[in-house]
Automatic annotation (TrEMBL):
It holds the Pfam family HTH_18. SMART domains: HTH_ARAC (SM00342). This is AraC-type DNA-binding protein. GO terms for molecular function: DNA-binding transcription factor activity; sequence-specific DNA binding. Keywords: DNA-binding, Membrane, Transcription, Transcription regulation, Transmembrane, Transmembrane helix. It comes from the Bacteria.
Amino acid sequence: MGTTYLSIELTFDLIALAMGVILIFRAKDNYQRLYWGIIAFAIGAVMSWENIGWLMIVTDTPTYKFTDLLNIEKMLKWYSLASIVCLFPIISLSPGYFNHLRIFTFLLPPIIIITVGLCYLFFNGKITPINSLNEIIPNMGELDIKLRLIIFLLSIFIPLTFLVYPIISNKTYRKINNNMYAFIAFLFLFLGIYILFTLNINEFIFNLFGIISIIFTILFSIQYLRYENPFSDHIDMICEMNKEESYTKLPQTLPLFTTIETYFKEEHPFTDQNYNIDCLANLLGEKKHSISEAIKSGGFTGFREYINYRRLEYFKQLVAENSNKNVKELMYLCGFTSRATFYRNFSDKYGVSPSKYIENHSIKQ
């Protein structure tokens, strides 16, 4: 583990930290983006701190060896982060269901186990040295060995349960997309590396875990900068041919969402490029939080995703009514200000570019 490698990784750590800060400030009512920003910031900060420490160790001890297996501190760090990160696919599919209390409820088992582990380290502190797998069974009578094995097993089982759940459950307003499959694949990779990292640590596994962690963080931070919800699409925002009949028993929306839907369809306030959730809250005489919760009950991640959906739907309506206008004219009439954002959103949600959509519509006529 050379200083050059650690310096490069430290640079990526600081990039992840900076991206986390940007996401936090850009989150607004999108709690997923806020949580991911906090996670990215935390990962960047923790790994920056650790790599600075490793730079000092490597400088002083170039031949440093990794020997300690079932390291309780490393397992608790993994367990805390993995339990939160593995919730993102579930939260992505059910933005109207998950609030702060439900997230806390899901995380209660990891919180209890992590607290027990930290209390043991603080009040007892006895750690039996384990330098090979053969030393585990002879030391099974030791309290810390039992505790470390329990933490190890739970730190695999609980994140794994969170990962599998979205794949087997589809009673939601949203549909899994390729980004979520990539996210889940990354986490399964992490799980395998974590097992090796805990039971048979060496320099290569240590470096692999660190570099993949930071690449993973930066990669999906970019996705959250580009998209309101990068892991799933609302079923009303995908091609008709991709909608599945299995989406039959959907969650109930709040009555306020029906009011918002009616107002947006009839009045088209979103054509104002500066329209925001404050404008809607003032008009309806509701709190911003109530507006946001109502929109989330309809399966949308937040106000920004919903208003972009309405603008995209209005674009299709304008195409039918104004066949002589070009994409740029119609885009501005819908309320979009960025051509790149409009093209990306339209192509991602409907499977064709705006130009191709207009061309196909002209052919049908």
